[in-house]
Amino acid sequence: MTTDQRFPSISVTDLEGRSLVFPGDIRASTMVAVVAFRRQHQALVDSWVPWLEDRQHTDPGFAFFEIPCLSMMWTPTRSFIDGGMAAAIKVPTILQRTMTYYGRLSRVTGPLGITDTRTITVLALDQVGAVLGRATGAFSPEEATALAARLDLGRGTTSSSGDPSQA
Fold first, then answer.
1. How far apart are CA 90 and CA 88, in angstroms?
2. Domain of 124?
């Protein structure tokens, strides 16, 4: 089951320096986009990563991405910002799944109905970027279970649990 919301087509660059169009260039039957707006959001993003990595290991058609969204005023310092993140991370899989967007934030927030950029938004998407479900803020087993159910419906499968403690 999808909503009428769709992740907008945006130009991003992963932390290995590859330019992509998200979600169009992504090949996955379902995915999660964790959208962040502030540096302080990294702890919230990181709270979701164990569950997302577990799902990725058990579901070969699933992928997830961290998408820091920065205002276009930061574009001149993009190399410095992205380079700093990449130097701190160093892990190829994390560099590949972290895709920065520099531009009008309303280009992302408007189509997705994101009204609060003071926290992260976690979006379950189908293979073309239609929004299947959403959560905001730090990981919770209840939110993860709901997202897992939406991802499974989006693919037409059923998983036993969205809670990593049950895996």
1. 6
2. 10-166
